[in-house]
Amino acid sequence: MRLRFLYLLILLATLCTQPLAAQKKEMKEADKYFNSFEYALALDAYKKLMERKEPDVYLLERIADSYRLMNNSKEAEFWYAQAAGFETVAPASIYHYAEAAKRNGNYEKAKELYTSYARRVPEQANMAMEKAASCDSAIFWTSRPLSYEIAVEDKLNSTGVDFSPIQLPNGDMVFSSDRLPTDENKKKERFNWTGNGFVQLYYASMEEDSTWSEPSPLSQEINTDFHNGPASFLPKENTLYFTRTNSVKRSQARVNTDPTSWVNRGDGKGTGNINRHEIFMARRNGTEWVDVKPFKYNKPQEYSVGHPAITPDGKLLYFVSDMPGGKGETDIYYSERQPDGSWGEPINAGDVINTSGRESFPSIGADGKLYFSSDGHVGLGGLDIFRAEGEHGSWTRVQNLMYPLNTSRDDLGIVVDSSGTKGWLSSGRTSESGYDNIYKFREVNVECTLVGQTYEMVDQPGTHIKKRVMVDNVLLQLFEENVGSMVETHSDSTGNFNYKVEAGMQYTIRGSKKGYLTQTILFTPDCRFSIDSLLVEMIMYRDTPNVPIVLENIFYDLDKHDIRPDAAIELDKLVRILKANPTIRIELSSHTDSRQTRKYNQDLSERRAQAAVDYIVSKGIDRKRLVAKGYGETRLRNKCADFVECSEEDHQVNRRTEFKIIGK
Question: pLDDT averaged over the chain?
Answer without folding.
Answer: 87
